[in-house]
């Protein structure tokens, strides 16, 4: 921040600074802390016993398991894609580069429900290639593969979008020096590129994982809401709530809330570590 801006901010009246701080804190309390407290309060409204019973229910355990499975497949897939795409965009000039950047941003502009519907139109029984898949004994929609594909689609920008500006800022000098000294392509990536982007990569993976576990719209369309088979945690919460089983619904929702809190703490730690390393790199 320029010195003049800092001086201007410090010269503002004390009442204005306090008002802005109080407004920000009130906003956070109303729209973040209060809903979070409400989730845990409702989950524990009938005691710890009812809370635990809701979590160890067979359908709840299957929903938790499926959520972790989908995230465990989607996140590594997006990690590979994100690194490859960001490397291409940041390190090379080629025809269609702007198109690739636009396609990376596509899930941000398309509703998750629409993206799920696209998969239904492609892989459903009446879809473009659904009859062929059925003849081969392959089921995509209303099965785990559909959940994975929908989750990959809505989450694949996160890793690439964290790495592209970072790699563009770093330039290509270090990679070129490594190649001149005789390093191969994989050696250059593992020993030069990857160490330089590791914190940004971890940050992108963290955001991708948080979105994968909390995704609702796209997976809702392709899942079929089959209990114990295609219900992830967000879908299971919806079903329980619609059945007026509020304690169980908020109990499962509290697991998602705890995962969100863990993600927030890890995100803050990575931001601090990444920011400190980036500042050190700029001062070299």
Automatic annotation (TrEMBL):
Which is an annotated GO molecular function term of this record? Answer: ABC-type sulfate transporter activity
Q: Just give the chief location class.
A: membrane
InterPro entries found in the cross-reference section: CysW_permease, MetI-like, MetI-like_sf, Sulph_transpt2
The source's superkingdom equals Bacteria
Give me the Gene Ontology terms describing cellular component: plasma membrane
- Subcellular location field: Cell inner membrane
Give the record's subunit note. Answer: The complex is composed of two ATP-binding proteins (CysA), two transmembrane proteins (CysT and CysW) and a solute-binding protein (CysP).
Q: What is this protein called?
A: Sulfate transport system permease protein CysW
Organism this protein belongs to: Azospirillum cavernae
Q: What is the lineage of its organism?
A: Bacteria, Pseudomonadati, Pseudomonadota, Alphaproteobacteria, Rhodospirillales
């Amino acid at each position: 921040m320029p010195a003049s801006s800092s001086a201007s901010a410090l010269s503002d009246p004390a009442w204005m600074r306090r008002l802005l701080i109080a407004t920000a804190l009130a906003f956070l309390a109303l729209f973040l802390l209060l809903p979070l407290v409400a989730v845990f309060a409702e989950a524990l409204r009938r005691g710890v016993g009812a809370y635990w019973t809701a979590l160890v229910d067979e359908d709840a355990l299957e929903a938790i398991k499926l959520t972790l499975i989908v995230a465990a497949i989607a996140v590594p897939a997006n990690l590979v894609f994100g690194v490859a795409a960001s490397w291409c965009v940041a390190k090379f000039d080629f025809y269609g580069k702007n198109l690739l950047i636009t396609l990376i941003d596509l899930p941000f502009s398309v509703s998750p429900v629409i993206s799920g519907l696209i998969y239904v139109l492609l892989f459903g029984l009446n879809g473009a290639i659904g009859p062929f898949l059925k003849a081969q004994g392959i089921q995509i929609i209303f099965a785990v593969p559909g959940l994975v594909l929908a989750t990959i689609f809505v989450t694949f920008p996160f890793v690439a979008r964290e790495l592209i500006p970072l790699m563009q800022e770093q330039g290509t000098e270090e990679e070129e020096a490594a190649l001149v000294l005789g390093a191969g392509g994989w050696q250059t990536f593992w020993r030069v590129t990857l160490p330089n982007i590791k914190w940004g990569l971890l940050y992108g993976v963290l955001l991708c994982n948080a979105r994968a576990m909390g995704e609702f719209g796209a997976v809702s369309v392709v899942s079929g809401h089959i209990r114990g088979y295609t219900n992830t945690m967000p879908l299971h919460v919806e079903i329980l709530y619609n059945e007026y089983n509020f304690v169980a619904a908020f109990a499962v929702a509290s697991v998602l809330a705890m995962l969100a809190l863990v993600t927030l703490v890890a995100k803050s730690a990575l931001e601090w570590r990444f920011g400190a390393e980036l500042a050190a790199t700029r001062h070299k």
